[in-house]
Design brief:
The chain has a single domain, classed as P-loop containing nucleotide triphosphate hydrolases (Rossmann fold, 3-Layer(aba) Sandwich). By secondary structure, it is an alpha/beta fold. The radius of gyration is 18 Å and the shape is globular. A hairpin with a 2-residue loop joins strand 11 and strand 12. The protein has nine helices and twelve strands. Keywords: ATP-binding, Nucleotide-binding, Translocase, Transport. Pfam families: ABC_tran (PF00005).
Amino acid sequence: MAELLTQDLCVTADAALLVRDANLRLVPGELVALLGPNGAGKTSLLRAALGLEKRSAGLATLDGMDSEKLSPMQRARRVAYLPQQRPLAWPNTVRDVVALGRFAYGAAPGKLSLKDAEAVDTAIERCGLTDLGNRNTDTLSGGELARVHCARAFAAEAPLLVADEPVAALDPRHQFSTMDIVRQFVEGGGGALVVLHDITLAARYATRIVWMKQSRIVADGPPEQTLTPERLADIYGVRARVDGRTIEIEGTL
């Protein structure tokens, strides 16, 4: 079974401890939201877990293999990664950008095998981009472009997805539509780890919430167990009312 695992993972930079003793696990069937204030260490945790950032201590594995020792192709076949910054070097068509997801199998846009082309078509359809396949990406809205990046990740047909703020700067409608796509991926047998700043979205979609504060994971569990007024006060310094998965922020402490 596909698995992303960290054990006592630490990350340092210029003597600053960015991640301390992080234990995290992701498997198919889970939609895990990673929450915490700016500077809590969320991005460093993701990158070190994937072997993209050097860890100073601890363990990080993908399917039991040290993630730092995986080649880019080996990693891409195990997990699709959407970083915070997703620049496009030039305005290719939607289909060509989605086809970049087949890099894990040695494919290149314009030179797709039948299997590669089928994977690209499936990803485009899954993300509602069928009518936009021939459009240049520089003509798309922010919401449409977010779906293109999701499709590129799904084209790799990796069992796991790690996405760092995939709904940042999107309006509420496109936030929901993007998270609906991620949830459908999980319901289809995948596993997703998503960094979010919107607590309401996390409560609505996540099967588990991992909470970070000051470089540490301080809680990990279902929303019903970990989403409490006390937790929100501790993590974000806000007063809130919580009723199941419904949150009302009342102000700062």
